[in-house]
């Protein structure tokens, strides 16, 4: 694919942001409960002892209750910290999270930086997404942090994107650098894709 897809991606992201912004408080609360239930079940099914997750922003599917559950269960949780070079550092979850807005404008915890390679130790990766199609192709928010991270891992554990139900679609615009995911978690279900990339088969 070529750079001609950039305007199409921007328009789709803007539409998805608007839809998320228009969700009611009750819809967000129900979605949060469902996503937590699905993520807990996924973590138990994979037997993950270490997971990477992210601090959700206001309009994103809420991952915070899941992170709190994982920490209470003794599961090590890594959160991403954006860097100016386009890579991600990582820090561990603590009992009392202090937050700031990172370079990418999303919430990030304040903690000891563990470096980009810390992600190699986790058993499950939970990532944000704007949308995912039924082949597992992920449309991110245009910053490229996760595409770079996932694309550089030699032994990548299962990767699941967290989205709202309507954001699982037939097709998203795809470019060469875009990375697929193994599945999606929505408020009502967890979907695993039958077509996985060779990168994911090396776990």
TrEMBL record:
User: What cofactor requirement does the entry state?
Assistant: Mg(2+)
List the catalytic activities from the record: (6S)-5-formyl-5,6,7,8-tetrahydrofolate + ATP = (6R)-5,10-methenyltetrahydrofolate + ADP + phosphate
- Enumerate the UniProt keywords alphabetically: ATP-binding, Magnesium, Metal-binding, Nucleotide-binding
The UniProt record lists the EC number as 6.3.3.2
Q: Which Pfam families does this UniProt record tie to the protein? A: 5-FTHF_cyc-lig
Question: Which EC class is the enzyme in?
Answer: ligase
User: Which NCBIfam families does UniProt cross-reference here?
Assistant: MTHFS_bact
Family classification: Belongs to the 5-formyltetrahydrofolate cyclo-ligase family.
Name the chain's protein. 5-formyltetrahydrofolate cyclo-ligase
């Amino acid at each position: 694919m070529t750079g001609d897809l950039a305007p199409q991606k921007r328009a789709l992201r803007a539409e998805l942001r608007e839809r998320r912004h228009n969700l009611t408080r009750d819809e967000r609360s129900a979605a949060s409960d469902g996503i937590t239930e699905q993520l807990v079940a996924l973590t138990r099914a994979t037997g993950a002892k270490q997971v990477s997750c992210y601090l959700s922003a206001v309009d994103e599917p809420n991952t915070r209750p899941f992170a709190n559950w994982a920490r209470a269960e003794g599961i090590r949780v890594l959160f991403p910290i954006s860097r100016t070079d386009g890579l991600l550092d990582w820090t561990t979850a603590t009992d009392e999270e202090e937050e700031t807005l990172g370079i990418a404008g999303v919430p990030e915890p304040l903690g000891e930086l563990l470096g980009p390679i810390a992600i190699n130790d986790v058993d499950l990766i939970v990532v944000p997404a704007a949308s995912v199609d039924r082949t597992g192709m992920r449309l991110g928010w245009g910053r490229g942090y996760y595409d770079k991270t996932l694309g550089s891992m030699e032994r990548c554990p299962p990767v699941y994107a967290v989205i709202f139900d309507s954001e699982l679609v037939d097709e998203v615009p795809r470019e060469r650098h875009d990375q697929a995911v193994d599945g999606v978690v929505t408020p009502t279900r967890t979907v695993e894709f039958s077509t996985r990339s060779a990168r994911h088969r090396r776990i």
